[in-house]
Structures are given as C-alpha cells and as structure tokens.
Design goal:
The chain is of the alpha+beta class. The protein contains 13 helices and 20 strands. The strands form four sheets. An eight-stranded mixed sheet has the order 6-5-14-15-16-13-17-20. It has a six-stranded mixed sheet with strand order 8-2-1-12-19-18. β14 (197-201) and β15 (207-213) form a beta hairpin. The protein is globular, with a radius of gyration of 21 Å.
Amino acid sequence: MRTTVGIIGAGPAGLLLARLLHNAGIDSVVLESRDRAYVERRQRAGILEQGTVDVLREAGAGERMDHEGLRHDGIELRFARRRHRVDFPALTGGRSVMVYAQTEVCKDLIALQLKEGGPLLFETEALAVEDADTERPRVRFRREGVEDVLECDYVVGCDGYWGVARSAVPDGRTFERTYPFGWLGILADVAPSHDELVYARHDRGFALLSMRSPSVSRLYLQVPADTDAGSWSDERIWDELERRFETDDDWSLRRGPITQKSVTPMRSYVHEPMRHGRLFLAGDAAHIVPPTGAKGLNLAVGDVVTLARALTHRTATGSDDLLDAYSATCLRRVWQAERFSYDMTTLLHTAPDATSFEDRLQLARLDRITSSRAAETDLAEAYTGFPIG
C-alpha cells in the first residue's frame, strides 16, 4: 500500500489532518488501532477555542457543531464564596469558545472521511515507523492478523503518548511535570446548574462545572492522584460538589443520576523536537497539558493546521521551508498553552503540602484577575486561543 501521507491515529488530530489534506488535493491513509465505535465514544475534551471552531467550519466539518454546540461567551471564577464572570467577547474583540465534545468532532470527521476522503482503516495496529530519515518512510502495521507495510512520502504520528510514532524519534528531549492530584469526573443526566463553565477554587480542592448538552452535566472534583472513582458514592460526590461551589447568594447545584465516573491524571509534557526526518508528531504524541486550561484538543488542531499548510506549500512550490519550520512554529504555541494550563492549575488547585502563605497567594492572584482589566484580558485571550501558525 502506498500514499503521500501516512497518518497514525484517528483521534481529532489525525482525522482533521486527513480532512485538510483531502481539501488540498493531497492523498492520505489513516491507520487506527481501535474500532469505529470506540473512537466515537471515547470521552475527552469538550471546549473548542475560537480558532478550532473556525478551522472546522472552513474544513466543511462545522454544520452539526453549529447546530448542536453551545457557544459560550465567558466563564465564571468562584472563590471565597464570591462569583466573578470573565466576559470573553468584551475582552478579546469578540472571541468566544464552543462546548462541543471531542466524541462529536470525531463522529463528524469520520463521516466525512468515509464519504469523501482516503482510506480510514480501523482495527489496524501500527507496529513501527521505519526509515523516517529517508525519502521513503514506512509504517509497518497489522490488520486482521496479517502484517503489511504502508509506504509514504511523510508519516504523521497522531497516536498519543504511548504510540509508536513518538518512540521512533531517536534524539528527542522531554520536559514534564506530574501533579499530585487528579480529577474525578462525572457525567450526569441533569441540566447544567449554570449556563457557562464555573471554575471554583476552594480550601477543600478545585471543582469545575461544565456540560455536554442542555440536559447533560459534566462536573469534576480535585482528588488525590491515586483515587479509585468507584470508592466515591453518588451522594458523596454531589455533597462535595455543593461544598466547593458554595456562594453567598442563592445559587444552587442541581443533582441527577450519575451515568459515568472516571479519574483523570494531571500532567504536563512536551517532546522536542516534534519532527524527525519525514516523521512529524502532532497532538498528544508531542505534548500533554493538564485539562484546567482546556487546551489539549485545541493544541492538536493547531499542530495539524500548521502541518497541512506546510505540506500544501511543499506540493505547490517544492519548498521545504514550512516543513522545516514545523517543530519550532508549533512549539511556540505549545509552550504558551503549557504556561497557561500550568498557571490555571496552580491558581485553582490546592496542593497537598500547600502552606497558608501559598493559599493567600492564590487568593491574591484571583483578586488581581477579578479587579484588573489587563489581568482579566490576559486570561480571556489565552482561554479563547492563541494564534495558529
């Protein structure tokens, strides 16, 4: 089998890249180890930056998002029983975000790829990337028990931290931080208790109120990193959420049946460079952020938009300039997102060994954001998205 671009992984990064290449007249093959049903129900991010929304629309993948997604023009910060709304459009010249789950993005892109694009091979395990430093890189894969080879001009690893692509970069350098807490996340069949996301800093730990639809709530609690989700009863979860979201007004938390519980670890990770020869890394294969800043999926989109532009430029001009700049171009945006995600995490979470001095510093930082338009604007600009490319 042969193609121009071999893409490993059918998450949002791989699927969007295939769509962008298709629209540019560049052929690709996508290899995905899981089956279609798994990819379409894999719960991940739910916040799309303004730039991501724009890219999906331009790619022809925005129709259902625009119909079913929930545009949000701000978030609420909650601390010391106080509430403060950050107004995104007023602070950023009209930018906003969209609540639209990664599962739905993947469904839309899969449907388009199967209808119009190149091969999308589910249940196909990539085994190794070979000859990445030559003009004819290859991906060895196994499908239906038979090993085969995909010959390419370029290979793109969108297969996550544990995938084969990252391990095929021989001289990379990694930067990482592991946090001593995680998020206990729930899905609940109940209308959200607020019409925008609520980020709460509390002495007992962080909490986040989010949603998946007008009738499904998504909520999170900061918990120790080794927490077993099954050890928390539904009643205990709701009681703890109520404590951490408490305010001095008459706001109340709606309760409902919990349909899913899981614990998400918190870590920051960057792999440099994001390229080796004709192998390019994108998304979680190259970087991971704690979810506090809602940056993971959006960073992946930035990577593949940058790469698609570079490959289109190469096809049109024969120049490798943009391909050669891919890693440096992406990493500028990656490190800003890492910085913002770290800032949001340390601003809102209670460290197990935090001192009273550090607690007061958190409150002082929150006071600064809520009393200074400049500080609030910095948060709003980062949350709604850094420029792509």
